[in-house]
């Protein structure tokens, strides 16, 4: 069985090479029904990476691809580092933390100084970052390897999460709107929901670009306790977060607080 995320990547690879793809091409290449092929087309059109044509899809005039994990890692590097530094301070010695697959969460993992923690993740890169530390344990949520997005995926990831309990979960987001967090794949939301259910506190780490980004599948704010970001949160979103008792930590405000304390001392 091939998951939608894997199918979409195969379709994109084909379109990047051939510039267009018909419904029948999708059915033949992926061995799926016409209904499944049409659902995949709708998803790619919603993402804005393809345009509909008569009988299939094609690249838009201005080519736009779903960015790979490595490409996203380069974007807003300084912002991610600042967010990661503040988030990492929330981890206490001997805690169990869940670390989502996200370039910003990866920055959290890089800057954790707490000792004797247990880290749970399905991110290949976070496993690599933490594997060199002898003062903590890493529990890997096993599944199928997604090489482009550097993660393990599949039903076994959620099955394993259901057996665990954590003090904190750090998750990323593709988009943040007034009604919740958004992600490009339905499976993403299922994994995030289970991470939230299995954790006492859920911390979202996201840079300012996520407030103007768009995506498809929603995770309700009811799952979130803290949002850490690098710039001012738009007023309409800030109001919603305030009403839901979600704490907002802004990097610039945190930096100012630390500078004031230095001056006083």
Automatic annotation (TrEMBL):
Organism of derivation: Paenibacillus anseongense
Q: Which PANTHER family match?
A: HTH-TYPE TRANSCRIPTIONAL REGULATOR SRLR-RELATED (PTHR30363), HTH-TYPE TRANSCRIPTIONAL REPRESSOR GLCR (PTHR30363:SF51)
Which Pfam families does the record cross-reference, listed alphabetically? DeoRC, HTH_DeoR
Q: What is this protein called?
A: DeoR family transcriptional regulator
Q: Cite the HTH deoR-type domain residue spans from the record.
A: 4-59
List keywords of the entry alphabetically: DNA-binding, Transcription, Transcription regulation
Matching InterPro entries, A to Z?
Carb_Metab_HTH_regulators (IPR050313), DeoR-like_C (IPR014036), DeoR_HTH (IPR001034), NagB/RpiA_transferase-like (IPR037171), Tscrpt_reg_HTH_DeoR_CS (IPR018356), WH-like_DNA-bd_sf (IPR036388), WH_DNA-bd_sf (IPR036390)
